[in-house]
Amino acid sequence: MQGDALSLYLEKNGHPAGGAIGKVEPVRLEMPWHTKHNIIDCGVFLMHHMETYKGVAGKGWECGFSNKCTDAGEITYKQRKEIDDLRHKYITKMLLSDANEYKGFVEAEVAKYKKLSVDEKNWLEIGEVT
Question: pLDDT tens digits for 108-119?
Fold first, then answer.
């Protein structure tokens, strides 16, 4: 499956681990911040895991997420806030990256937004004027 594809890719490109990697059995880490039914935020979890994982297995790895879910395995308000903050962080980095060919357009839109009144910003953000 994925290990096979990775193994084939590594072998094709002459990497010394190419043959061995296909024989490794993947192990799913049990993480205290694991949710059961949240299938929407997997990209945010993945990016944060890639950012914070330093090779420490299991309970020694602290990525900064709240460790509590509801009893039903649902995401809590605190986790939702953490995930939303990370989503904003990652999208900002992507949009303002030099690799984004539309970076200039994004910066121009931000400049226009900054000139809006508080009422105009509220209307754009939540659809109502204060």
Answer: 999 999 999 999
Maximum alpha-carbon separation in the chain = 63
Taking alpha carbons only, the member of 99, 97, 82, 3 closest to residue 35 is 82
DSSP of 70-114: -TTSPPPHHHHHHHHHHHHHHHHHHHTSTT-TTHHHHHHHHHHHH
Residue 26 token pair:
């993947």
Amino acid at 37: H
Chain Cα centroid distance, residue 47? 3
Query: Measured between alpha carbons, how far is 27 from 35 in angstroms, rounded to an integer?
Result: 18
Question: How far is Cα 116 from Cα 47, in angstroms, rounded to an integer?
Answer: 32
Tokens standing for 29?
């880490």
User: Could you report how far apart the first and last alpha carbons of the chain are, in Å?
Assistant: 54
What's the whole-model pTM score?
0.68
